[in-house]
Design a protein that fits this description.
heterodimer; A: 189 residues; mainly alpha; Cytochrome Bc1 Complex, Chain D, domain 2; two-stranded antiparallel sheet; B: 470 residues; Cytochrome C Oxidase, Chain A; globular
Chain lengths: 189, 470
Amino acid sequence: MIPNSDKSTPIFAAASVVFFMIGGLLTTVVPPMVDTTWGRPFENSDPAKGPTGKLQPLNEQQLQGRAIYVREGCWYCHTQQTRTLLADTKRSGWRGVDSPISTPDEFVYDNPHMFGTKRTGPDLSRVGGKYDMQWHRTHFKNPRDLVQGSIMPPYPWIANNEQEFQAIVAYLQTLGRAKNWRPDNDFER
Amino acid sequence: MAAEKQASAYSSTTAGAAVHTDTTAKWFLLSAVGYFFIVGIVAIMIAAKFVWPEMLGNIAALSYGRLRPLHVNGMLFGWLLAADMGLVYYLVPRLCGVKLWSEKLGVATAALWNVIVLGAVVSLLAGWNQGFEYGELPLPLDVLVVVAWIMFGFNVFATVATRKYQQMYVSLWYTMGCILWTAFVYLTGNFGTLLTTGVNQANLNWMYVHNAVGLIFTPVGLALAYYFIPKSGNIPLYSHKLSMIGFWSLAFFYVWTGAHHMLHGPISQWLQTISIAFSVMLLVPVWTVVGNFFATMKGNWPLLRENVSLKFLMSGVVFYLLTCFQGPMHSLRTVNAIVSKTDWIPGHAHMAVLGAFSFFAIAGTYYVVPRMWNVKLHSDALANWSYWFFMIGGIGFFVTLWLGGFWQGWQWNNPSIPFIDTVIALKPIWMVRFFSGIFMFAGIVLFLYNIMATVVDSQGAKPETQVASV
């Protein structure tokens, strides 16, 4: 087949599609059938198996906030995954408690997914509940008022739009909360 | 080996009888060069925002989160893919010894492509972003891309079907492979993702992101390199057999690697391992191709002194070798734990898309524009200057981001360093990146000026024939 592929267009086209499709199908369609945790929402009530909790779909306001997060491209600089690296669990941790690693079942309702590829700002996979409303308001107006040296742009058009501001904070407060990983549930609202 | 050299002689036998009007190639190339300049301004703006985060900070449409997708999509689809398509419209008829199947269809494709790019500018600045990397464009524009791709693919395949020579030169395989694979890759990344959520969706998204580079820009870029290296140096390709190994190993290995974008992330470990194994195997197609090009140049290196196209091409080959060495290496778990998500990644990505594939497209543009308009290049000296601006800016950009990225990764892996300190540490790196960007932009300006001036020169020389064909 291959030796003649440079003389016949049909043979060439068939061979190149077949070559491509083997890997194409085995790495896209097959994996979710093999690993069913990709599609099963997180739920655990047995503390012996790790953090307990249940993944909830977002409500209308949180979804609106998520749409703002997508629109403004927050995901270009903030990842949402605590990787299987010790440093990630420390950095995503809070007040001395390490964060659990991110697992596929925590993201079942995410659409579009917001895992991200570039970490210009800190990872947000466990940011939910860490900062209160007032902190976020000040931070969106000018991040450098709270974090000296930050290069995050200011977002006055969100901070000054009460509906949008409430929505995006409502979304941020959900991040990483399916797992009850804080000792006393000491989250900000 | 002699037979192999003979087989590759197609590269130096341009169509004798067929007269090429090249209207489609001209439209594609001129718009691509224009977008290179316009999106270059956007590139400078986002590089500046790393250094001066308040700059234009109160205008939503000009915020970083809106400009970055415009930079990426504008460079990928407005400049690079449009230039690649324009050059394909030039080389396919010549390698087949016939005219392009339909110039009318080609010009319509070019017009549609411009509609897509302008639509992308408006929608991305308005924040109408689907939230997928490389797949940001809203759905109606995705549909138009598919339509344009079918028009492009049909024209190319119909031209190949009417070819005069039975054996197809390697550039034709890469072009046709690109057209076929892109169809599947694009549909997966822009439509398959809409049917899925969470990790499943991310997996499809990374399959698309990775193969947008690996199975769109790589094959069409190599099609150009395989055509323009022998042509611009007037030397035969070293080996037909090596190019075949390179092609079929690319066809088989590349698509498996998407999951390496989520190493250590929330995706099955075995899938990560598969993607690592195939990422390392990518050394096979890369080294065979690069080996073939180097063997072609053996004894002919002095040509680089005078030949700007060849300078861009062979520098592109070196960047291709380097970027494709980085790729397999940083897909290894230990290396990935340091460089993933850092500024190393844009350094790596820019070396592939700018250093390798844009260099090929620039070389091709410098080669074909004087020939299509039947006039000498406006200024060889300026072309040479543009090369050095791209080269110095590019190296400044790549090297500082690798060093900065490595440094950043080491700092991240020490959790006792607060995150903000790792941001502050990189500020000098981002300053150097900004000034490297200025250099690259100067290269773009000289390139644009030289191409436009060449076209204007041709109008002055023979107004009566040229008006009709443009």
